[in-house]
Structure formats: C-alpha cells, structure tokens
Write a structure and sequence with these properties.
37% of the residues lie in helices and 28% in strands. By secondary structure, the protein is an alpha+beta fold.
C-alpha cells in the first residue's frame, strides 16, 4: 500500500487530520487497532471549545453537533454553599458546546467513509520504519490486518495513537524529553439517566473534595467526585455516590437530580508533555504528545489544535515544497500546549483538596476562588482560557 500521510490512530486527532488533509487534496490512510464500535463508544470528553466548534462546522462535519450540541455561555464555581457564575459571553463573546467525543468521532468517520477515505479498523500497527531522515520520502508503517502482515509506504507519519501507542515509543531513546506530574487524587465519574440539575457546568470546591456536575444531553448527567487514586469502584455503590454528590454540591435552594447510573469508573489524573513533538517525518499529536488533567476540559481540544497546525504545514509542503511550517510544528504547538497545561494545572490546584493541605492552604484556596469570582480581570482570564486560546 502507498499513501501520502500514514495516520496511526482513529481518535479525534487522527480523524480530524485525515479530514483536513482530504480537503486539501492530500491522501491519507488511518490505521486503528480497535473496532469501529470501540472508538465510537469510548466515554471521553464532552466539552468543545469555540475554536473546535468553528473548525468542525466550517469543514462540513458540524451539522449534527449544531443540532444536538448544548451551547453554554458560562460555568458556575461553587464554594462554601454559594454559586458564582462566570459569564463567557459577556467576558469573551464566545461559548462552549457540550457534545460527546464519541459523537464527534462518529461524525468524522461517517464523513471520511462518505468521501472514500481509507480507514482500517482492527489493524494494529506493529512498527514504524525509515522516518528518521526528514529529507527522505520512504517512511513506512507495518501493521496486521485479517491475520496478514501489511506494509504502508508514506511520505509522513502522524502518531495520533494516544499515550500508550507505538508512535512515541518508536522514537530513539534520548531524542525526547518528558515532563510529567502525577496528582494524588483521581476522579470517580458516573453517567446517569437523569436530567442535569443545572443548565451549565458546576465546579465545586468542598472540604470533602472536588465535585463536578456536567451533562451529555438534556436527559443524561455526567458527574464526578474527587477520590483517592487507589480507590476500588466496587467500594462505591450507587447510593454512596449519590449521597456524596448531594453533600459536596449542596447549595441553598438547589437540589441534585438522581437517576439510574449506567456507567461508572475511576480515572487517575496527571499532566504530561513530551518535547519535541516531531522526529524526522514522524509527528506526534494529541494524547501521544501530551496529557492534561480533565479539570480544564482541554484534551480533545488540544488534539484538534495540534492537527490543525500539522495539516496546514503538510498542505504548504505539498503546495510549494516549503518545509518551514513543518519544521516549526513542534515549536508552534508547544506554545499552546504549555499555556493549556498551565490553565489545567491551575484549575486543578484551585479546586481540589491535596493530602498535604493544612488550614492555611484551604483558606488560601477559598481566597483565590473569592478573587476569581469577584474580579472581572480574573474572571476574564479564566473565561478566555476555558473557551479556547487561538490554535496557533
């Protein structure tokens, strides 16, 4: 097989990249180890920045999102039993949209298949070859499909296969520098058949730990509790989860809506960045390159920003032979990556309880929340980062 760009991974990064390249007349093949059903049903992020919404809409894959997505013009920060709204529209003129990652993936897969794109599911990549020399054009990807070994020749390789994928680990030892922080807590998340008790997301600081009220649709709530990373989900029956959510999210004159829990799980939290994001003709994007704690709702959006930069650079190369944008891919993306890491770390640190906290730390967090919700400048800074920084 032969293509111009070989893409490893059919998550949002790989699919958006393939879609953007197709619009530039550039051929690609997407290789995914799992089934189509698996990648479409994975429970992942559901908050889309304004830039992500605009890009999907402008490139022809936003119709269902525009119809079914929930547009929010603010969030609530809740602490000491009181709610404080951050008004995105008034502070930035922008909004966010609640639309599950699985739905974004479905829309992108449908669009690529309708356009005749090559998406190979259940095609695990075995190895990457000859990508070290940026001036060569004979890179290849070896994968398995239907029990047979296949080689895909390509000009460029895009590693969009997540944190545990083969792309990043294929780069020679010593060529990359990793930066990582592991947080001493996790999120216990549930998906419930219950109408959300708020029209917007509620981030709650409580002396028992952080809580978040989110949603997936007008009939389904997505809720989270801070817990210990070694917690076992078996120790959290539904009744205990609801009781803890009622306690942490309590606010006078407000009540939480309960319903059947249809999914639940515990997810650890960490920050991770690898530098650089490119090695020869191999480019890393999305979770293969960086992980952010979910507090800032940035994972999917950061992946989309990566591949927007990469697609533009590849298109310029094929159009004019100019490599300057390709050579600056890592530098361009990392400027945004570290700003997003800063914001995600800040939100996480402000809203969660740490094992090492003493009374001073707790009062300091409350002072910071009071400042953020009472200062227009501080509220605007939060709003600007939450709705999305420029992609480049």
């Amino acid at each position: 097989m032969r293509t111009q760009v070989g893409i490893v991974g059919a998550g949002p990064a790989g699919l958006v990249l393939s879609h953007l390249l197709h619009r530039e007349g550039i051929d690609s093949v997407v290789l995914e180890a799992h089934t189509r059903e698996y990648v479409q049903e994975r429970v992942r992020a559901g908050v889309l920045e304004q830039n992500t919404v605009d890009l999907l809409s402008q490139t022809g894959v936003g119709a269902r999102m525009q119809h079914e997505g929930l547009v929010h013009h603010g969030i609530e920060l809740r602490f000491q039993g009181r709610g404080h709204r951050i008004d995105f529209r008034e502070l930035t003129g922008k909004a966010i949209t609640i639309y599950a990652q699985g739905e974004v993936v479905k829309d992108l897969i449908d669009a690529r298949l309708a356009a005749g794109g090559t998406l190979l599911f259940e095609a695990p990549v075995v190895s990457l070859h000859d990508f070290e020399n940026s001036s060569a054009n004979k890179s290849s990807i070896r994968f398995r499909k239907d029990g047979s070994s296949v080689e895909l020749g390509c000009d460029f390789i895009a590693g969009c296969d997540g944190f545990h994928g083969i792309s990043r680990t294929s780069i020679p030892a010593g060529a990359l520098t990793e930066y990582e922080r592991t947080y001493p807590f996790a999120w216990l998340g549930i998906l419930a058949e219950a109408p959300p008790a708020s029209e917007e997301l509620v981030y709650c600081y409580h002396d028992r730990g952080f809580a978040l009220l989110s949603m997936r649709s007008p009939k389904r709530s997505r809720l989270y509790l801070q817990c210990h990373p070694e917690e076992l989900i078996e120790n959290w029956p539904d009744e205990r989860i609801w009781q803890e959510l009622h306690t942490r999210l309590a606010r006078r004159g407000w009540s939480l809506t309960e319903g059947p829990v249809i999914q639940k799980g515990i997810t650890g939290m960490r920050s991770f960045v690898v530098e650089p994001l490119q090695y020869g003709r191999l480019f890393l994007a999305g979770d293969a390159a960086h992980i952010v704690p979910p507090t800032g709702a940035k994972g999917l959006n950061l992946a989309v920003a990566d591949v927007w930069v990469l697609a533009r650079a590849i298109a310029e190369f094929y159009r004019s032979g100019d490599r300057s944008l390709l050579d600056r891919y890592s530098e361009t993306c990392l400027r945004r990556v570290w700003k997003v890491q800063r914001f995600s770390w800040w939100m996480t640190s402000m809203l969660h309880r740490f094992d090492s906290d003493n009374p001073f730390d707790c009062r300091r967090q409350l002072g910071e929340l009071d400042y953020v919700t009472s200062s227009r400048a501080a509220s605007q800074s939060l709003a600007e980062n939450y709705v999305g920084l420029p992609m480049d």
